[in-house]
Each structure stands twice: as structure tokens, then as C-alpha cells.
Amino acid sequence: MTAASKSRGAPRIAFVASEAEAAQQALQELCQRYGTIAPEEASIVVPLGGDGFMLETLHRFITQKVPIFGMHRGSVGFLMNSYRLDGLPERIAAAQPVELHPLDMTAIREDGTTRQAIAFNEVSLLRESRHPALHPCRQHGL
């Protein structure tokens, strides 16, 4: 980031990338063009990868309450914006914000202990026998 862009109020961008070759290449290009800072200091996090990496990034930064602007550099990218090197601050400024409300789950084990988790995409439960744990209504087709 240049001194001029900082003075204009440009976003403090943290880039994170999956291990995919295309994501790592994009990470180098974007860091070279825009600079990068630690995600904990960022005003926005830009994950580079596919949908799986986007979901990981959402989980990783949910408590930070920082906007996420994903760019597709993985195999599946339904949740991602297209990758373009040019005009990133303008694209971020023009982005339509979406507020997510993940599913908050509390599972109670047989011994009474609990485990809490959130889910943006889906939740799957498996019993020790590896049989799916179904809601009683679903077992009867309701």
C-alpha cells in the first residue's frame, strides 16, 4: 500500500490464501500490488481459494467481525467473487454487504458434556457406529 492510498482511506487489506497453486500465485501478485497486513489489524480480509477455503476463513475470523471479500482461485467458487488484480479497493467499496447468521449448535454427549459449534454451510452428526443421527421427524418422512 502506498502512502497516498493510505491517506485516501484505502482499506487495510489482509490477504490469506489456500494451498492451491493459483491461490498462492494470486497472493504474491496482490501483496506486491497492494501490500498486506496481519488479519488481526485488517479492516477487510480477502481469502483466495475456493468455497471450502472461504468457509474456513469465515470460521477463523467470525469473532473479529471483519468483512470478508473472497476471490475465486480454487476448484469450486460459488461463494467467491471473480479474481481480478486491478481495481480491488474500488471493487471492495462497491461490494454489496451481506450479513450472515450461522447456525449455532450445541451437541450433548451421552456423558452430559456439551460441544458448541457454528455452521455456515451444513452440520453432519455421526454416531459411534457411523450411522447418521437423524431428527425423529426425518426418520418418518415428515
Structural class: alpha/beta
- Which residues sit in consecutive blocks of at least 5 with pLDDT less than 50? 1-7, 137-142
Helix content: 25-40%
**SSE series:** HEHEHEHEEH
Q: Count the strands?
A: 5
Distance between the termini: 56 Å
Overall structural domain count: 2
Looking at the structure, the CATH topology of the largest domain is: Rossmann fold
Describe what this molecule looks like in 3D.
The chain has 142 residues and is α/β, with parallel strands linked by helices. It has two domains: 92 residues, Probable inorganic polyphosphate/atp-NAD kinase, domain 1 (Rossmann fold, 3-Layer(aba) Sandwich); 37 residues, no CATH class. The protein is built from five helices and five strands. The strands form two sheets. A three-stranded parallel beta sheet has the order 1-2-3, with helices on both faces. The protein has a two-stranded antiparallel sheet with strand order 4-5. Strand 2, helix 3 and strand 3 form a beta-alpha-beta unit. The N and C termini lie far apart (56 Å). The N terminus and C terminus are likely disordered.
